[in-house]
Amino acid sequence: MPDFLDEITGCIPALRRYANALTHDRDTADDLVQDCLERAIRKKALWRPQGPLRPWLYRVLINIYRNNLRGRNRRPSQIPIDDVAEQLFVPAAQTSRIALTEMASAIDKLSGEQREALLLVVVEGLSYAEAAKILEIPLGTLMSRLGRARTALARMTQEDQPNLKVIK
Amino acid sequence: MTGSQPQITEADLISYVDGQLEDQRRDAVRTHLAANPADARKVELWQQQNATLAALYPPLDTGVLPERLDVYGMERRLRSERADWRNMAAASILVLAVGLTGGWFGRGLVSQVAEPARSIVADAAQAHQLFASDVLHPVEVRADGEDAANLPKWLSKRLDRKLNIPDLTRHGLSFVGGRLLPSSEGAAAQFMYEDKSGQRVTLYIVAAANSSDTAMRRSNVGSLETVSWDDETIRCALVGNLPSDRMDAIAKDTYQQLS
Predict the structure, then answer these.
(1) How many domains does chain A divide into?
(2) What is the rounded distance in angstroms from the CA atom of residue B47 to the CA atom of residue B63?
(3) I need a labelling partner for B142 at 20 to 30 A (CA). Which of A37, A44, A158, B248 fits?
(4) How far, in whole angstroms, is CA A97 from its chain's centroid?
């Protein structure tokens, strides 16, 4: 058990970041991570998942996230997006605050499945194969979700990027 | 464009941006971008999206974790809860004995023991008895029938849960088929398996109203062995006539494949 717990602990920062990105609310995100960790420990009592833990933990977390959504039947975020941006990032030198706020709001408007997929790949840095396995979808489905997510993001964020407006 | 140029798809462009192409393909995309400014702008936009996302969701400070995310504490707590539960179960048996002999002294204590969720074992066993003995029509959708491919999708839809059909061939069990059943918990799915001698094992699944996990519970209904458990979104019971150690092994494998 100690090895298992050590390995889980190593995954917590990534899980929190992912949960934060999904929910845009720190407390909700930590609730999600807490549920995920508890479930992982309970499950461990019955069987040891094969292979690395990180992808499996994402899957457990996503299942809980979807269940909660289904249970409450509400949009993932209920907080004003300005607060979200405020909460989430330390102002970065490279990217303007406006661009970040805009991106946060665009992410919020993506469909759940697009958001789950895009964040796994772009933010969590998982390979397409790993992400497809976590989401239990074929690779082709993952690719088309990523494509649609990127198109939607571009549509929602390109107002202040006149040089890119020509792109359809 | 020459005929020998590999066709560059949108998937290639996205994979390029996400750094998921092999060297050779990456070089091909670079060549393609040099000659196609429209695609190059698209790629630039996506790269910008990635940079913005990375800035928006930076790695979290790993310094101090909130106490509630401490897995060591969590594990200790869960272990003691399990022990408490066992003690409580033992206590309730004691209380029952006291109650039987000692009149009302035990009553206040009995009611403190939390009521377990209604067991699905009885329903599962009943469904098993009804259908496992049926030679001609044991299932509604046969594994070798035309509709077989749609079975998991159909039952997933009816239970509003993602279900897949566990593969139990390593236990010498082949899949016979499945059916939808009414139950006191709403729709139930039943999967049937059989071994070479025709011994049948059924897996009975209903949707769980609130997510919880439990350990596996073993019980006997008449001559039938059952193993039941709750797992996040579903509640399951495995029913059959096989020896209990085999039933345990099958249940664990099933649990693993369903979660």
Answers:
(1) 1
(2) 30
(3) B248
(4) 21
Distance CA B63, CA A16 (A): 13
Distance CA B68, CA A30 (A): 9
Question: pLDDT for A27-79, tens place per residue?
Answer: 899 999 999 999 888 877 666 666 788 999 999 999 889 888 876 654 544 55
Q: Which tokens is B93 given?
A: 């048996």
Q: Do residues B238 and B202 make contact, with C-beta atoms less than 8 angstroms apart?
A: yes
Beta bridge partners of B205: B189, B236
Chain B, 82 to 111: residues with Cβ < 8 Å from chain A are 82
Q: What is the CATH number of domain B121-258?
A: 3.30.200.100
Range of the domain at A32: 1-76
pTM of the model: 0.66
Listed as own residue / partner, the contacts of A68-75 with beta carbons closer than 8 Å and 24 or more positions apart are: A68/A32, A69/A112, A70/B160, A71/B210
Interface ipTM above 0.85: no
Kindly report the CATH number assigned to the domain that includes residue A7. Answer: 1.10.1740
Residue A37 in tokens: 């960790």
Helix (H) or strand (E) holding A107: helix A97-109
The DSSP line for B64-84 is ---GGG-HHHHHHHHHHHHHH
**For residues B161 and B52, what is the distance between their CA atoms, to the nearest angstrom?**
35
| A13–B66 CB contact, under 8 Å | no
- The stretch B9-20 carries a mean pLDDT of 93
Amino acid at B79: R
Q: Between A34, A89, A103, which is nearest B68 by CB?
A: A34
Closest chain B residue to A38, measured at CA: B74
